[in-house]
Design brief:
By secondary structure, the protein is mainly α. It has 18 helices and 3 strands. Among the domains are: about 1-110, no CATH class; about 195-230 and about 255-290, Winged helix-like DNA-binding domain superfamily/Winged helix DNA-binding domain (Arc Repressor Mutant, subunit A), CATH 1.10.10.10. Belongs to the CSN7/EIF3M family. CSN7 subfamily.
Length: about 350
């Protein structure tokens, strides 16, 4: 009965959608069975999307984890749920980051599936890559480890999209510039703005420097990483034919004074914690965000935890030894007084 009612209510999403959505919420709260509750919730999602009353249902997304425990639904239903939520949030311009999060959840459900099933997620995998590249405040993700995304690497149509993702997660600005010079049409077809990509890649190049150097990054190294050498640029063959490209690449050069500006930008974006030693022209890094978190990062984390554990054990032993010495000294003083 609940399914019949909710289906009927959702059939005309443009006719008083807010009221229809409220009816569905009331119906959901009256139900006790997890299956019927999940069905009604999905109807409410589609109604909110088609009726353009997204703001009314977005607050419920904070409870999705508890809903999943209550509904106890299968993998296919989870995929449908995550993808629908991602589509709902995509319509809300202020929820791009949350949309990407649920799209990533959707792609993660394809782990362990055969190639035929994984192929169903190909378009969404491309969408996730493009959304990550476009996002100005997202600097790490697990997309490279997902089979749904990995299938793009050898795909005739989308191999370059996978290559672009790999550049943003594992390489620096110079690699991006070479890619863009050879694939500018592809970049434009996905609505990627070159200047925005340069800004993001400069910040990610700083992250890469912080991850690979021994706690200190010379200003000169940062300057080299964030600029382009025209003579070695892959764009050079096109310079004689494309004056706009030439002007654009001249603008990529940065001065010594701009090095600290980019460091401040990285700190503001919470990508690194560091101090700038202006006297010695070095950046002293105390923490750096990882762009990817694979086996190497887990191994590094294990070594750090083992070191911290040893330091804490040593500190405890020192405190206990001092306590024993102090108690012995107090006992001797007591005997002397007697």
């Amino acid at each position: 009965m609940a399914k019949l009612i909710s289906t009927k209510i959702s059939q005309q999403p443009n006719d008083k959608p807010a009221m229809r959505l409220k009816i569905l919420f009331n119906l959901y709260n009256l139900l006790e069975g997890p299956d019927s509750r999940f069905f009604v919730y999905m109807q409410a999602l589609n109604l909110a999307l088609n009726g353009k009353v997204i703001d009314h249902i977005v607050p419920s997304f904070k409870k999705i984890d508890s809903f999943l425990k209550e509904w106890n639904i299968g993998v296919k239903d989870q995929r449908n749920l995550f993808l629908t939520i991602a589509n709902v949030l995509k319509e809300n311009k202020s929820s791009g980051k949350d949309s990407f999060k649920f799209l990533t959840k959707y792609l993660a459900t394809f782990s362990g599936e055969d190639s035929y099933v994984i192929g169903e997620a190909k378009e969404e995998a491309v969408r996730a890559v493009i959304e990550f590249v476009k996002a100005p405040d997202t600097f790490w993700c697990d997309l490279l480890d997902m089979p749904a995304v990995g299938q793009l690497e050898k795909d005739a149509k989308y191999a370059l999209v996978y290559q672009l993702l790999k550049i943003f997660l594992t390489q620096r600005l110079d690699a991006y510039l070479e890619f863009q010079a050879a694939n500018s049409t592809l970049m434009k077809s996905y609505g990627l703005v070159h200047e925005d990509c340069i800004t993001k890649m400069r910040l990610m190049s700083l992250v890469d420097l912080g991850s690979n150097e021994s706690g200190q990054i010379p200003y000169a190294l940062i300057k080299d990483a964030l600029r382009v050498n025209l003579l070695s640029s892959a764009c050079l063959p096109h310079l004689l034919h494309d004056l706009g490209c030439s002007l654009m690449y001249f603008s990529l050069q940065i001065n010594d004074d701009e090095v600290e500006l980019w460091i401040v930008k990285a700190i503001t974006a919470k990508l690194i914690d560091c101090k700038m030693d202006q006297m010695n022209q070095v950046v002293i890094v105390s923490r750096c965000t990882e762009r990817i978190f694979g086996q190497h990062q887990w191994h590094s984390l294990r070594l750090k935890l083992a070191t911290w554990r040893g330091n804490v054990a040593s500190l405890i032993s020192t405190i206990q030894a001092n306590k024993v010495v102090e108690e012995g000294s107090q006992a001797m003083q007591g005997m002397a007084i007697r």
